[in-house]
């Protein structure tokens, strides 16, 4: 680490919270990027396989987005939702049409946490209940209410909550009491668990909030159709379904534009939330809901920064680029190749339990060699070894034992091959170090 980077780290520690996580034993300062690559303050180049936590969705320094931001900033940077905003209306129209939700309304926020917070407010107000169903191993944000529906202890610092949350099975296919069942039997068992849970709830439950693919949870997912089966049960009780699409939206999974579409047999969700990738790094989040639910708040409200003219211009440019260049199709093709390469290079490594995911949303679960025990140390060793080779990846999952791989959706075949080779070397190094320890 250069003196400048070391000094910045010390300054960081002096003025920012101790719980504000940093990757790496020697944290790096990223200074600029282009395409799928970024550079640090020491001049090192990295292939970015994490995209700022799935937020740089298309590419670093994408000219179309940069030009849209610059042009709008030259006219008007801020106005708030107290005034009509053409960019906000235009982006809302496009998202409403794409959402699959009939008679949809869109409310913009500045983050995914705030989007989920708003969805919980809408659902509890509409249903006149503070009871929420959530998935085990889930993550929905860092606000007081979203921590209260997060089923992952690593990201839940307090047990206090304004909500009564009931956790159901289903988000982690290959672990837990139902892991050995077939997909059909797994879904049936999870539905039975949901039915049983509803018998424990006093009064009406407001909503189920669920990630189609659990992001911070390590890119775990249930069999396709689970939430459709849940939806049939929820509908009988009048319970709303909130699909948390903060990480799964915009075609990242390849097979679907929205994650909920893998569970579409009983129709779309009542509400969906989005953020991260739509702004390609600009701060955009939001909620889409059918009008009856969205319009249920009995008091006035505004958003000071949600729907900012600059972020809306970025979102419009980014969404246009994504659709015109079929990045969903690219995620399916290149992501499928990347998953197969990673499964091939990890086949002989007993430090890897599983390679899972779809599209450009891939998880690698690490274990202590020769066991089925999750290993955060193994994941950290791979993270460091990959960084040393010029590859940035993420980590998460229960106990921080899963690698998270989510490159920008413009990833090329050559870059996928490059990243897979670098990761293979990093995994081999980590296994060797664990074997010697």
Note the topology.
Elements: H1 3-15, E1 30-34, E2 37-40, E3 45-48, H2 51-54, H3 63-73, H4 86-99, E4 104-109, H5 112-127, E5 131-135, H6 144-147, E6 164-168, H7 183-200, E7 207-210, H8 226-237, E8 240-244, E9 271-274, E10 285-290, H9 291-294, H10 309-324, H11 327-346, E11 352-358, E12 361-366, H12 376-388, E13 391-392, E14 394-396, E15 402-405, H13 413-436
Parallel strand pairs: 3-13, 5-6, 5-7, 7-8, 8-9
Antiparallel strand pairs: 1-2, 2-3, 4-10, 9-10, 11-12, 12-15, 14-15
Helix pairs in contact: 3-10, 4-10, 7-8, 11-13, 12-13
Give a structural overview.
The protein is 39% helix and 16% strand. The strands form three sheets. It has a seven-stranded mixed β-sheet with strand order 4-10-9-8-7-5-6, sandwiched between helices. A four-stranded mixed β-sheet has the order 1-2-3-13. Strands 11-12-15-14 form a four-stranded antiparallel β-sheet, covered by helices on one side. A hairpin with a 2-residue loop joins strand 1 (30-34) and strand 2 (37-40). It is globular. The longest helix has 24 residues, at 413-436. It is α/β, with parallel strands linked by helices and 437 residues long. The chain has 13 helices and 15 strands.
């Amino acid at each position: 680490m250069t003196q400048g980077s070391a000094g910045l780290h010390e300054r960081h520690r002096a003025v920012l919270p101790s719980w504000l996580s940093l990757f790496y034993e020697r944290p790096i300062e990223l200074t600029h990027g282009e395409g799928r690559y970024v550079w640090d303050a020491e001049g090192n180049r990295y292939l970015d396989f994490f995209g700022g936590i799935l937020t740089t969705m298309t590419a670093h320094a994408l000219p179309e987005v940069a030009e849209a931001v610059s042009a709008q900033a030259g006219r008007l940077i801020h106005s708030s939702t107290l005034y009509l905003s053409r960019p906000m209306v235009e982006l809302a129209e496009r998202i409403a049409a794409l959402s699959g939700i009939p008679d949809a309304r869109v409310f913009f926020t500045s983050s995914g946490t705030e989007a989920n917070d708003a969805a919980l407010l809408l659902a509890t107000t509409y249903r006149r209940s503070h009871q929420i169903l959530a998935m085990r191993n889930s993550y929905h944000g860092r606000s007081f209410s979203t921590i209260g529906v997060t089923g992952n202890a690593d990201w839940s610092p307090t047990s206090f909550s304004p909500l009564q949350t009931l956790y159901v099975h289903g988000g982690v296919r290959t672990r837990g009491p139902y892991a050995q069942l077939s997909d059909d039997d797994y879904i049936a068992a999870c539905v039975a668990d949901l039915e049983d849970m509803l018998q424990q709830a006093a009064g009406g439950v407001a909503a189920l909030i669920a990630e189609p693919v659990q992001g911070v949870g390590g890119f775990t997912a249930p069999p396709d159709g689970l939430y459709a089966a849940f939806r049939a049960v929820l509908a009988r009780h009048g319970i709303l379904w909130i699909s948390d699409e903060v990480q799964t939206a915009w075609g990242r999974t390849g097979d679907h534009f929205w994650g909920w579409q893998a569970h579409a047999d009983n129709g779309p969700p009542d509400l969906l939330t989005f953020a991260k990738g739509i702004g390609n790094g600009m701060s955009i989040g939001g909620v889409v809901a059918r009008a009856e639910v969205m319009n249920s708040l009995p008091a006035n409200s505004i958003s000071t920064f949600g729907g900012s003219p600059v972020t809306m211009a970025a979102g419009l440019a980014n969404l246009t680029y994504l659709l015109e260049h079929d990045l969903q199709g690219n995620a399916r093709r290149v992501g499928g190749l990347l998953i197969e390469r990673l499964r091939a290079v990890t086949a002989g490594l007993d430090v890897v339990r599983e390679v899972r995911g779809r599209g450009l949303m891939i998880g690698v679960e690490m274990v202590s060699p020769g066991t089925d025990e999750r290993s955060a140390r193994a994941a950290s060793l791979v993270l460091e070894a990959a960084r040393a080779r010029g590859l940035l990846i993420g980590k998460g999952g229960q106990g921080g034992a899963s690698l998270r791989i989510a490159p920008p959706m413009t990833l090329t075949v050559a870059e996928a091959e490059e990243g897979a080779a670098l990761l293979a070397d990093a995994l081999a190094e980590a296994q060797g170090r664990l074997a010697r320890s």
